[in-house]
Design goal:
Blueprint lengths: L3 E6 L3 H12 L4 E7 L2 H11 L3 E4 L8 H11 L4 E6 L4 H10 L3 E4 L4 H12 L4 E2 L5 H7 L14 H11 L4 H8 L3 H15 L4 H11 L6
Parallel strand pairs: 1-2, 1-3, 3-4, 4-5, 5-6
Length: 215
Amino acid sequence: MRKVRVLLADDHKVVREGLKLLISAQSDMEVIAEADNGRMATTLAQQLQPDVVVMDISMPDMNGLKATERLMELCPNTAVLTLTRHSDDGYVQPLLQAGAKGYVLKQSTAEELVQAVRVVAAGGTYFDPGVTDQVVNTFVGKGGRAAPGKGVSKREEDVLQLIARGLLNREIAERLEISIKTVETHKSNAMNKLGMTSRVDIINYALLQGWLKQE
């Protein structure tokens, strides 16, 4: 039986070593490569065409979101499985929009991760039980596929970026030379499109987009 070929992408060596031991212990899986940053992950994936990339979010030299977007262009037949400690909507939604087929929390059990690898390798989608039903319902359409989010306009993106930087609606209105009501409308529309529910979601989204420096 052909084994599921897995590429591990995480900037912490101890995490990669633990994942490698876990996955290699499965009779139907093998780890074919490791990467400690997103750029290396996309390069190796293009060369090796793995079945699954287990992808961390917070990595140097291209984070997990950007790497997932790039992988979908270079390796459309490879499934990306996000593995992270973040369960916030602002992290989950952009990854699913980018094309990730699964989302597993690092707080979950080893069995959870192994099951997720098998599911996405078989063409399905997998969501950790710790991910809210609201997020899953927003992004999963009929047939179990991640539904693409509606595009955010440039002006809506501008408003989100300024909110994430801590500006008040009045300050944003002055900066963009629009009314406060228009700022509120752009904010509401963008949050609805992205399934966001709070300012924390906006900040997390901004971090993933590279608008802010992550500590």
